[in-house]
Each structure stands twice: as C-alpha cells, then as structure tokens.
Amino acid sequence: NGGGRCDGYIAEWDVSSISDSAVISDVTWSYSIGSSSNPINCDVYAVTNKISTSTASTLFTDMRDGSQYVSNDSYCTGGTGSTTIDLGSTADSDLQSDLTGDDLFGIGQTFNAWTRDGTNRNIHTFTSSQLTVEYTAPVVTSAPTNLAGADASTSAINLSWTAPSTASASIPAV
Q1: DSSP assigned state of 145
Q2: Which of 1-10, 58-67, 128-137 has the highest mean pLDDT?
Q3: 88-96: long-range contacts, CB 8 A cutoff, minimum separation 24
Q4: Which of 10, 20, 86, 137 has the maximum number of C-beta atoms within 10 A of its C-beta?
Q5: How far is residue 75's CA from residue 81's CA, in Å, rounded to a whole number?
Q6: How far apart are the first and last CA of the chain?
Q7: pTM
Q8: Sequence-ordered strand ranges (E) for 51-93
Q9: Are 68 and 5 in contact (CB under 8 A)?
Q10: In this structure, are residues 148 and 33 in contact, taking their beta carbons and an 8 Å threshold?
Q11: CA 107 to CA 119: how far, in whole Å?
C-alpha cells in the first residue's frame, strides 16, 4: 500500500458575541506549531458540521469538502513557530452568514496532497489557535427629532416624533 499517513486539524469558534448586523471585513487564523514532521503545502476549508455533535468520519469528510479558503499554500511547511493566515473573502462571506445562522465558524486544515508515499506527514502539536475577525459594528447615524408629548395621564402619554433618515445608517433607525 504506499504506507504513511496524513493528519488534519479542525477548529470551531463561537462567534455569537459579534452582532448579527456587523459587517465582516476580514477573517484571519493565527496559530503556533510546537512540532511537525515532513510537512507539505496545506489547504484550509470551511467546516459546516458542529464539532461537538458530529462523528469523526463526518468531520474527516467535512474538513476537505467545504468552501476552500486557502489552496496549496506553503505556510505550514515552515516547521515550528507562529503563523497568521488571511482566510480570504470567501471566509469573510461565510462568517457573515454564520452570524445569523448557528453562530459557529469552523475550519479544517489538511495537507494539499493526500497521496500515500510512505512518509508520515503531520503537524504534531498546535500550541495555540486563534480566529481574528475585523468588522464594523452597526451604528445609527442620527436620533429622532421633533419629539413631543401630549395628553399625559397617570397611566399613559402620547408621543410623536420624526424618524431619522436611514439612508446612511448600517441598521434601520428606530
């Protein structure tokens, strides 16, 4: 059989702390490798199945069949140390969609070639793994004007106002 084996890596982050209305501008992945063995170029794919509830077989397939964020890149051949990778505009769009979905963002890293050549190829230890998301928080550009109250009683008050223009707002004004 050719022997050898290749390892993959899957990570998932909870992004629920980012507002559903935020506008994602960049997604990067930073990690440190403590040790590696015969690494070759890598790919990074979207992982869409929830790690905590999926089988190993499902995740093994998922880490190589989603949207491809990085293709045949040499970033993982450098041995040990820290690396930061821009996951690209597809990851930015996918994370934007995840904000209104399950609030989880996952990636799978695999070696680019899965040909059995008799050589074990793996990255043994990730000593850290971090997702960095750059985004613009939603803002309303102006407040209501002409606020007036009338017909006040002990249990109710009638209010009227002019709503601000929403043409330049990231989210509709209230």
Answers
A1: E
A2: 128-137
A3: 90/46, 91/27, 91/46, 91/67, 92/24, 92/25, 92/26, 92/27, 93/24, 94/46, 94/67, 95/15, 95/24, 95/27, 95/133, 96/23, 96/24
A4: 10
A5: 11
A6: 66
A7: 0.71
A8: 68-73, 81-86
A9: no
A10: no
A11: 25
Distance, in Å, from the CA atom of 148 to the CA atom of 85, rounded to the nearest integer, reads 54
Backbone angles phi, psi at 146, to 5 degrees: 55, 40
Which residues make beta-bridge pairs with 28? 86, 132
Of 8, 172, 15, the closest CA to residue 94 belongs to 15
- Helix, strand or coil, per DSSP, at residue 78: coil
Distance, C-alpha 82 to centroid of its chain: 19
Give the SS3 label for residue 4: coil
Nearest residue to 18 via CA among 85, 84, 89, 95: 95
pLDDT of 142 higher than 90: no
User: Tokens representing 15?
Assistant: 């992004």
Q: 10 Å Cβ neighbour count for 93?
A: 13
Locate 33 and state its tokens.
Answer: 């490798």
